[in-house]
């Protein structure tokens, strides 16, 4: 099992593309001080993911930084592997390379690529990464690779050709299924969206806003159907049932309880994604309130 030096079992997932990188680093430092063990972020046409990881790793001391995910259509496999190895050599155990096949609309329109046979595409991408010679960062352990694995075959690939899975928009029950498929010696790092509010209508509003884009992407719709939701749930913005399944709504104890459900289901690490007024809202006010309920150690 490739080592990841998580200082706690709970981290953060944050869409920070619209923030100046200096401000992102400032918030990463406080996230680290609050006791969260990681900061993950996506890649969908904003900041270049490996450059952002280098900045965040250099600006913090212990925080694990993860791509959640690096789009395999955005760079070649040798470039991903070489960049990841360099980050791993500079910051051993603190960088996680999350990889994903992304979605057809993004790949075809933003990257002018072809979205065909995602499983085969990912398998070949990993094979080419493995073929990068050892002379690239000789002696350095390569960072852990996690796959954005929603379907059963991609989950299996995350166990056989990578170091584990990064489930996103899943229930604790799906985390348990992922753990069963990857086995005990692979990483499972699950994301959990949260809305800190005792006003249920406000929480549902934030949840539906969060799900609006994802509910129009076939990969997520199919994932939710496999998780036990039905066609009436996967409407644009999601049903209230889907919103409750994907987003923890309530006070700090209720949010912490959902995080614990993922841990009890077999997650090694859970990433809290704070839902505010928009996707790039500052997560720190909620993270500050939530840290004591998660029993994080403020350092």
TrEMBL record:
InterPro entries, alphabetized: F420-G6PD/mer (IPR050564), Lucif-like_OxRdatse_MSMEG_4141 (IPR019922), Luciferase-like_dom (IPR011251), Luciferase-like_sf (IPR036661)
Domain of life: Bacteria
Alphabetized UniProt keyword annotations: Oxidoreductase
Coiled coil: none
UniProt GO MF annotations: oxidoreductase activity
Residue ranges constituting the Luciferase-like domain according to the UniProt record: 8-268
Protein name, per record: LLM class F420-dependent oxidoreductase
UniProt-listed Enzyme Commission number(s): 1.-.-.-
Cross-referenced Pfam families: Bac_luciferase
């Amino acid at each position: 099992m490739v080592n990841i030096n998580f200082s706690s079992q709970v981290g953060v997932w944050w869409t920070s593309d619209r923030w100046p990188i200096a401000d992102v680093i400032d918030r990463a430092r406080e996230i680290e001080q609050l006791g969260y063990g990681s900061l993950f972020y996506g890649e969908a046409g904003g900041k270049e993911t490996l450059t952002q990881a280098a900045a965040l790793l250099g600006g913090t001391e212990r925080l694990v930084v993860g791509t959640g995910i690096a789009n395999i259509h955005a760079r070649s496999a040798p470039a991903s592997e070489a960049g990841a190895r360099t980050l791993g050599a500079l910051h051993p155990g603190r960088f996680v390379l999350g990889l994903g096949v992304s979605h057809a609309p993004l790949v075809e329109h933003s990257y002018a690529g072809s979205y065909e046979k995602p499983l085969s595409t990912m398998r070949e991408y990993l094979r080419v990464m493995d073929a990068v010679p050892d002379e690239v960062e000789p002696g350095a352990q390569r960072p852990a690779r996690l796959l954005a694995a929603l379907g059963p075959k991609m989950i299996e690939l995350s166990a056989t050709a990578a170091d584990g899975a990064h489930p996103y928009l899943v229930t604790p029950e799906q985390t348990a299924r992922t753990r069963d498929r990857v086995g005990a010696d692979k990483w499972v790092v699950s994301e959990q969206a949260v809305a800190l509010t005792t006003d249920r209508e406000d929480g549902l509003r934030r949840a539906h806003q969060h799900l609006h884009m994802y509910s129009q992407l076939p990969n997520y719709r199919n994932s939710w159907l496999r998780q036990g939701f039905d066609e009436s749930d996967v409407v644009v913005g999601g049903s209230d049932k889907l919103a409750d399944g994907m987003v923890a709504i309530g006070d700090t104890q209720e949010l912490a309880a959902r995080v614990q459900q993922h841990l009890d289901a077999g997650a090694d690490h859970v990433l809290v994604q704070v839902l505010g007024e928009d996707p790039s809202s500052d997560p720190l006010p909620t993270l500050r309130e939530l840290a004591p309920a998660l029993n994080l150690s403020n350092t």
